Amino acid sequence: xxxxxxxxxxxxxxxxxxxxxxxxxxxxxxxxxxxxxxxxxxxxxxxxxxxxxxxxxxxxxxxxxxxxxxxxxxxxxxxxxxxxxxxxxxxxxxxxxxxxxxxxxxxxxxxxxxxxxxxxxxxxxxxxxxxxxxxxxxxxxxxxxxxxxxxxxxxxxxxxxxxxxxxxxxxxxxxxxxxxxxxxxxxxxxxxxxxxxxxxxxxxxxxxxxxxxxxxxxxxxxxxxxxxxxxxxxxxxxxxxxxxxxxxxxxxxxxxxxxxxxxxxxxxxxxxxxxxxxxxxxxxxxxxxxxxxxxxxxxxxxxxxxxxxxxxxxxxxxxxxxxxxxxxxxxxxxxxxxxxxxxxxxxxxxxxxxxxx
Length: 357
Ligand SMILES: [Zn+2]
Hints:
The protein is α/β, with parallel strands linked by helices. The protein has four domains: 58 residues, DNA Methylphosphotriester Repair Domain; 98 residues, Arc Repressor Mutant, subunit A; 74 residues, Double Stranded RNA Binding Domain, CATH 3.30.160; 79 residues, Arc Repressor Mutant, subunit A (Orthogonal Bundle), CATH 1.10.10.10. Helix content is 43%, strand content 12%. A hairpin with a 4-residue loop joins strand 6 and strand 7. Helix 4 crosses helix 5 and helix 6 runs antiparallel to helix 7. It binds zinc ion. The site of zinc ion has 6 residues, from loops.
């Protein structure tokens, strides 16, 4: 929960303050704000006059505001499912449809199933997932190709099985996404637009950053300014912009994943690393929630049984905490082992996932 510092201006940093100040309907469903002086809580878009910032409290859920003794506002009815929430559910359904389909469904088909116009569907899809439906279908297809490659070893067959119409297109995409070719990130994010936000989670502050293709950084920290400095050091040449509503939606999904590991919405990632790191990270993402692996087991998994130390280094270089679950790798000898963001956080993440039960 975020509470207002006494001198916090309603238009100051932080997407929640901005959403409330701008009556941003896109933020409805993400949180509610309560007013100490009236005892009422509202959606961000509520048309009512705004209270002084020092009297405003934020809650992630309506029921948390109720538990704290606040009543729902009669004007904005914050307890009802918001348009935004209904849309998020529709987009999640579309993601599942894309994943289940042999060939990607057309935009018109997906839009119709979601009850939106193609234009609106496209826009909403991007707002919720951070990528276009076409890019999402491309990622799904690539994941299938990678999985088939591992199982069968037959490159060309895997490419056709995954629905690529020409092998060269697969290699074009793979080169880009597997990090085999030097890319913009190697040059400090030159030409990239990166949006970021820092939010509070139960494990401390979290910085979430994304390019137009997906999430590029998730980092824990104790200090917002230090986190911001880290991001700028990682991508010194990128254009850094504040969160817009589409990005805020994405950032909320990330926080949701941290708080509720079982609610695993597949999020688009845009992470750069060496080919070796990419293979380690992909192996980590294949570890089911609630399970752990040893560094050696991951090394065997990627076909390099003697590379346990290099696996540990790749874990330490993981750019997206939790989404690539490097916390699920522990020493074979027992204990938690190291974690880039502290062993206490690692232990807490594993406890929440029910690991070791
Ligand atoms: Zn209201």
